[in-house]
Structures are given as structure tokens and as C-alpha cells.
Amino acid sequence: MPVSLVVMADTHLPRRARDLPHALWAAVDAADLVVHAGDWVDVALLDALEARSRRLLAVHGNNDHGALRERLPEVARAEVEGLRIAVVHETGDAKGRERRCAARFPDTDVLFFGHSHIPWDTVTPNEGAPSGLRLVNPGSPTDRRRQPHGTFVTAVAADGVLSEVTFHPVPREPRP
């Protein structure tokens, strides 16, 4: 049975925004699995996502401290519909990322990561995965940095494959 995913990272609440964008909350409410690749900053968002998500797979990031580090691992793993997923915040420099990640996550089909705030979707050869390791960074829905807009990702996991990967642009919402 297909599993719908929503993937986010680098939310930095409440420093970069007071809340997640409305479109992202709607995606959370519709998803079977919510993935957060770190840099929450405040535990209130973790509490809210745990309350609203059917299932949450999440890690802490370099800007997360205290309760966030106590409650969240550095690396999270799950098998979803035959798809071996890992989540981590940092993967290092873009140069050589595919090679490093394939070596670090040999038994993984998809690696979700964050940190750079830059949307990323590549596949690299990996002997542990028949079609290669797919690396996906959803960008940031609240802190676009040098990107034209914020982003988050929706996707579907079914029969060991990640499909329908869509990067959703997030227009800036005014602060009240």
C-alpha cells in the first residue's frame, strides 16, 4: 500500500518564522509519514508535529539543543513499503556528497538530509541499493537563504521505490 510522505528541514522556528506555512501544515495533515531532517530550534514544533503526524521520523540538527537532542537521534532509519530510509541533518560539502553518503549509508535506498537550505535530488551508484542511493534535501520552508523561495517535499513510497517527488515552493507569509 503506498505511503505518502512530507519532508522538511531547517524550519528554525521561531527564529525564521512564527509557524510553518499553511500549505506545509496541510501536507502534514494529509501525509502518512512526516520526515524532519533537523534544525528545529524550539521543541514546540516537535511537540506539534508529534501531535499532528500519523508517524514522524526525525533527527536533530546543529542548531538543536537541550530537549531536542535528548528526544531526537543524529540519524534515524525506517523501512517504509520496502524502501530503506535514513535521515540525517548534515552531509558535508556538496563536492563529493554522493560518494561520502553512499559509503556512510550502504544499506539505504533514500537519504533525506538538510543543513544547506538548498533543495537537492540526486541518485548515486550504491552496491547496497539496486537503483543507487537517492539523496533528497527538501530545502527550508521558512528560511530560503539564497533560494528564490522556501521549499518542502512530498513523495510516495511503494514497492521499494520513492516516486512522485515534488518540491513545493513556499511563498513568504507575512509575520502578524
Automatic annotation (TrEMBL):
Record EC number: 3.1.4.-
Record-linked SUPFAM superfamilies: Metallo-dependent phosphatases
Keywords, comma-separated and alphabetical: Metal-binding
Domain called Calcineurin-like phosphoesterase: residue spans: 5-155
InterPro entries: Calcineurin-like_PHP_lpxH, Metallo-depent_PP-like, Phosphodiesterase_MJ0936/Vps29
Cofactor: a divalent metal cation
Pfam families membership: Metallophos_2
Domain of life where this protein originates: Bacteria
Region called Disordered, residue ranges: 129-148
Record-stated family: Belongs to the metallophosphoesterase superfamily. YfcE family.
Cited PANTHER family: VACUOLAR SORTING PROTEIN VPS29 (PTHR11124)
Protein's recorded name: Phosphoesterase
Organism of derivation: Geodermatophilus maliterrae
Highest classification ranks of the organism: Bacteria, Bacillati, Actinomycetota, Actinomycetes, Geodermatophilales
